Amino acid sequence: MSKETLNFQAEVSRLLDIVANSLYSNKEVFLRELISNASDACDKLRYAAITQPDLAAEDPDYRVNIVVEKDNRTVLVEDNGIGMNRDDLVENLGTIARSGTLKFMQQMEQARDAQGQVNLIGQFGVGFYAAFVVADKVEVETRRAGEEQGWRWTSDGRGEFTIEDCADAPARGTRVRLHLKEGEDEFLEDLRLRRIVQTYSDHIAIPIYLGQGEEAEQLNTASALWTRPKSEITDQQYKEFYHHVAHAMDDPWLRLHFKAEGKVEYTCLLYVPSQKPYDLFHPDRKHGVKLYVRRVFITDDCEELVPAYMRFLRGVVDSEDLPLNISRELLQHNPLVTKIRQTLTNRVLNELKKKAEKEPEDYAKFWDSFGAVLKEGLYEDPEQRDTLLELARFRSSERDDVVSLKDYVASMKEGQESIYVITGENEDALRKSPQLEGFRAKGIEVLLLSDPIDDFWVPAVGEYEGKAIKSVTRGAAELDKVKTDDQSEEKAEDKGDETAIGTLVAFLKTALEDDVKDVRSTQRLTDSACCLVADDGDMDIHLSRLLRQHGQSVGDAKRILEINPKHPLITRLAECAKGGLNGAQGDLKDAAFLLLDQARIIEGETPQDPAAFARRLSQLVAKGLAA
Q1: Widest CA span in the chain
Q2: DSSP readout, 48-72?
């Protein structure tokens, strides 16, 4: 076919700009990333050759070669792995196949500091595109194992790439040729390249050579890192293996390296990242734990290996017992995989418990990054629920730092029988919610839950250590049971005119009977005039709104309107209602609907009839100004 010119996906073009400007001080990572990709390609072919041995029969010794061409100022990184065809080139080198990538790119660009550096670069594996940090032109010559057609991909990283037939492509595998930029001649020196490989890629389990033929020099030990004794592995080697297996730029927050022996034998080397991957909540994400069988790569997308609420894990599991040719279907129902999953889950949770106990401040940083994911287990995994509840940390209305449920219960007020929570869009909005006013006045701590999963795990869990977990936006406030430090009796005048309030409540029930389930006076409010709450048996207000936003039908459950008997507006309306209305029934009815619309606005809703709301508000303001 003739040469074909294509455009990079928009996100790729933006990533190239970010990479070029963010990795300048750490340019040597380009070689680490290319070697890592070459190693993955060899792993994939080794697995494919189990069932199709002809794919690797002519060249069974997997390797990576680095070749320097000083006269041309080029560096080659070549492997004899699985290779690529035309579609692979477009998919792997022209796009980033992850939903939400555009949003992530925007976040990265907004995160540039005063020097133009991007602080979030560690959240994104730059991979192949790191080549453009040192090269102004990159050529990829490749041939997929088992196919006759070879291909050449070429780009200067400025928005376009070309694809054409290539008779000179390797017999199998991929050759990446970097045309170095001016000023990058250091990467033409053997000593520099040797040092980079030994620093970043010594753990790669296939040999890496400098040069070709009999004079080629092997630069790495070429043994799987996870198979070595822990005493022989340095912290730097552990860290570089994390960079390889996670395709990440940050450093690991936690690592676990252990070997299980007995009925089921396997080795694990697992990491918890220090930074949240950008695609953590995207539906097309891949799990980050690779499955090997006796050092042979099987898959990097084994959902059965770790629970979904631990998808932040990165690393390797190497089994001695699974068959080499195990299929994805067999993985889903294999008892050995189930056993490995159970053990991994227990080990990781136990390590997290140790960190939470010994290094609470450091653990709080982990929770900020991955707590929203881990809380999914409270809903999905009843067997681990007690452990996860111990690990959970929460923001609250009474503290600046996070609090555990154990510490919350220990500090509950005398007479307090429940753990109180409130769910919403974000922490700042929750802190301003009128539903917190009465609790704050009595010093009662309320947990602020702003992750979508919170609306689901709270009703699923129900209680902790015999204490019911209750939403402050549902049911009666029950504040009269809680004793405070100031036990003095409320002054009679602070209670308001109970008869007048009762008359107003009755009027509001009649006026709003088609729009609310009930109207009642409450202790929940101290500063606001009114609020909406759900009845005990009804769906929480925030959950109902969340489901509607996702197109779910949740019915039309009416809410309860609660009024603050001490608020000046309510006391004035109560006086009007008690006085027999005196011709003000129309004004009171308008005020009733204004109260309801006000409560809806506070909850983030819109008035049912915005035009009527504006009309009523204008009329009452005009009358007030004329008085």
Answers
A1: 107
A2: HHHH-GGGTTT--S--EEEEEETTT
3-class SS at 591? helix
Residue spans per domain, the chain = 4-222, 227-358, 394-471, 492-626
The 3 state secondary structure assigned to 205-225 is CCCEEECCHHHCEECCCCCCH
Specify the fold of 394-471.
Answer: Rossmann fold (3.40.50)
User: Could you say which DSSP state residue 445 is in?
Assistant: -
- Whether the Cβ atoms of residue 526 and residue 566 lie closer than 8 Å to each other: yes
Backbone φ/ψ region at 415: left (φ over 0), alpha (ψ -120 to 50), beta: left
Report the first-to-last Cα separation within the chain, whole angstroms.
86
Give the span between the Cα atoms of 294 and 45, in whole angstroms: 15
- Hey, is 371 helix, strand or coil? helix
CA–CA dist 252, 271 (Å, integer): 6
Residue 264 CB neighbour total at 10 angstroms:
17
Give tens-digit pLDDT for 106-153.
Answer: 555 555 444 444 444 444 456 788 888 899 999 999 999 999 999 999
Known binding-site residues for ATP equal 33, 37, 79, 84, 92, 99-100, 123-128, 174, 328
Say how far residue 449 (Cα) sits from the centre of its chain. 16
Q: How far apart are CA 558 and CA 405, in angstroms?
A: 32
CB 524 within 8 A of CB 472: yes
Angle, to 10 degrees, between the axis of helix 190-200 and the axis of helix 235-246? 90
- CA-to-CA dists, residue 428 to 296, 439, 512, 534, 604, angstroms: 50, 17, 31, 22, 13
Give me 16's structure tokens: 């190239």
The span from the CA of 219 to the CA of 192, in Å, is: 12
193-233 tens-digit pLDDT? 999 998 888 888 899 999 988 889 999 988 889 999 999 99
User: Which CATH code is given to the segment(s) 227-358?
Assistant: 3.30.230.80
Considering only 67-71, 73-77, 111-115, 321-325, which range has the smallest mean pLDDT? 111-115
Vertex 560: Cα angle to 423 and 575 (nearest 5) = 125
Q: Could you tell me how far CA 349 lies from the centroid of its own chain?
A: 18
* Residue with tokens 């000023």, as numbered in its chain: 183
**Do 253 and 242 meet the contact criterion of CB atoms below 8 Å apart?**
no
Which superfamily is assigned to 492-626 in CATH?
Heat shock protein 90, C-terminal domain (1.20.120.790)
- pLDDT classification of 19: cutoffs 50, 70, 90: low
HEC-encoded secondary structure of 132-182: HHCEEEEEEEEECCCCCCEEEEEECCCCEEEEEECCCCCCCEEEEEEEECC
Q: Which residues of 379-413 are buried (b: 16+ CB within 10 A; e: fewer)?
A: bbbeebbebbbbbbbbbbbeeeebbbbeebeeebb
Residues making up the binding site: 33, 37, 79, 84, 92, 99-100, 123-128, 174, 328
Distance set, CA 41 to CA 91, 173, 297 (Å): 15, 8, 10
Q: How many CB atoms lie within 10 A of CB 375?
A: 26
**Residue 199's Cα: distance from chain center in Å?**
31
Q: Per CATH, which fold does 4-222 belong to? A: Heat Shock Protein 90 (3.30.565)
